Amino acid sequence: MKSTLGVLLLVAGLCACTNQQVYDSVQNGNKLECDKLQTVQRDECLKRIGPTYDKYEEDRKKLLKKTE
After folding, report:
1. Distance (Å, rounded) from C-alpha 50 to C-alpha 41?
2. What is the pLDDT of residues 20-56, one digit of tens each?
3. pTM summary value
């Protein structure tokens, strides 16, 4: 019973996150992983990290309009 309640609370908490919060969290995790690398590798890793959430959302909306 306690584990079921815990799972329900976890799911409710995850649903409360906005898309931007999830996006930013993933981006921050990626940056932390890049920081573990040496200078040249780190720089290359950071270049592969996606755009800001605002830029991502703008690009996503443009793509959705094209498919309508």
Report:
1. 17
2. 888 999 999 999 999 999 999 999 999 999 899 999 9
3. 0.65
Residue with tokens 């909306």: 61
In angstroms, the Cα distances linking 32 to 4, 28, 60 are 32, 6, 25
For residue 35 the two structure tokens come to 């920081």
Tell me the CA distances in angstroms from 11 to 1, 19, 28, 31, one per residue in order: 16, 15, 22, 26
Contact 49, 34 (CB under 8 A): yes
Residue 32 tokens, joined: 């932390």
Contact 42, 34 (CB under 8 A): yes
The pLDDT confidence band at residue 1, using thresholds 50, 70 and 90, is: very low
